[in-house]
Amino acid sequence: MLTRKIATPSDYEMILKIWKLSVKATHHFLSDEDRLFYKEQIPKFLDAVELSLWFDEEQLIGFSGGNGYELDMLFLDPKFIGKGYGHSILTWLIENKNISFIDVNKQNETAKDFYLKHGFKVESESQTDGFGKLYPILHLKR
C-alpha cells in the first residue's frame, strides 16, 4: 500500500540519492557536466517545495515536491519505474493537492507521455530551462 510522509532535512541525503539514480536512468539527454550542475542545484530547491516521500510498506519508492498547484518534482527509484507507482502518486497529488501544472523536459519523452496520459496538455514551450541551458521545457496544464 502506498503511503506518503512529509520529508524533513534529515531525509535530503536519501532524496538526493534517488534523484541521482532516477536522472541517470531517465535523463539520457543531459551532458555529464550538466548532470553535475543540476545535482548541485537540487538541494537549494528542497526547502522551497512541499516535499513528500512515497513508500510501499517500508520500501522508499520516490519523492515529489510541489508548490501550490504546481508539481515541481517527481522522481522514482528506477527499480520502481513502470510498475504503477508514478500513476498512483500523481493521481493522489491531483486529487488531494489539486496539481494542475507541471513543467517537463521536452527530451524526456517517457515523462512527457506519462503526464499527457494523465490529462495534462502542452500549454507552452520554453527553449531553455530555468537556468538558461538549452534543454527545452514543456509547460503542461490539466
UniProtKB/TrEMBL annotation:
GO terms for molecular function: acyltransferase activity, transferring groups other than amino-acyl groups. This is GNAT family N-acetyltransferase. The keyword Cell division does not apply. Residues 16-141 form the N-acetyltransferase domain. Keywords: Acyltransferase, Transferase.
